[in-house]
Amino acid sequence: MIVFRELKKDDWEVVSRIYKEGIESGNATFQTEIPPWESWDKEHLKNCRIVAVLHNHIVAWAALTSVSGRCVYAGVAEVSVYVSNEFRGRKIGEQILGKLIGESEKEEIWTLQAGIFPENLASIKIHKNQGFREIGYREKIGKMNGVWRDTVLLERRSKTVGL
Fold first, then answer.
1. Nearest 5°: CA angle at 37, between 34 and 42?
2. Strand order of the sheet with strand 76-83?
3. Alpha carbons 126 and 154: distance in angstroms, whole number
4. How far apart are CA 163 and CA 143, in angstroms?
5. Dihedral angle, C-alpha 45, 48, 51, 52, nearest 10 °
6. Sign of torsion, CA 89 153 81 110?
7. Do the beta carbons of residue 149 and residue 140 sit within 8 Å?
8. What is the rounded CA–CA span in Å between residue 106 and residue 162?
9. Over 90: is that where the pLDDT of 72 sits?
10. How many angstroms separate the CA atoms of 47 and 139, rounded?
11. What is the C-alpha separation between 111 and 155, in angstroms, rounded?
């Protein structure tokens, strides 16, 4: 049985390994290196950080990043979800995203957004299964290893917060 709990500093070694797997896939992020804990901690919201634990091992993590420092966007955040290669295809990503949505609503976040490489069909699917809708496409938004990459923009509006 999967247990979801808060992601803590002591989890960073395992969380960063899962993050590295995502980086190495080439389809999870524009990020090319694992940041130190202090940088990652500073960039992500203090609440809404979750790990999925199966048989006493962290197998996935999810967190939110603020989209802007402007107060009008205080209820808008960007989603990150990463599942260990060994545990992909078991719906863990969809489950942890569902938990993240619930935590975000407790924190009065009314809109979640995600920018996903179009090749990452599994990530697009889990987001859509959790109520995200495709709202756009960013063509050649950034270069990765010298190649322009596109992203699909997805958004989920809360049905309980920010009405």
1. 105
2. 2-6, 44-54, 57-66, 76-83, 111-116, 147-157, 133-144
3. 11
4. 37
5. -150
6. negative
7. yes
8. 12
9. no
10. 32
11. 7
Structure tokens at 65: 């990043």
Indicate the pLDDT class of residue 154, thresholds 50, 70 and 90: very high
- How far is 52 from 117, CA to CA, in rounded Å? 23
Whether pLDDT at 73 is above 90: no
Give the pLDDT score at 92.
97
Q: Token pair for residue 141? A: 């938004």
Residue burial 127-153, b: 16+ Cβ < 10 Å; e: rest: beebbbeeeeeeeeeeeeeeeebebbb
Q: Is the model more confident about 68 or about 52? A: 52
First to last CA, the chain: 35
What's residue 74's pLDDT? 86
Whole-prediction pTM value? 0.95
User: Which pair of tokens denotes residue 140?
Assistant: 């050649």
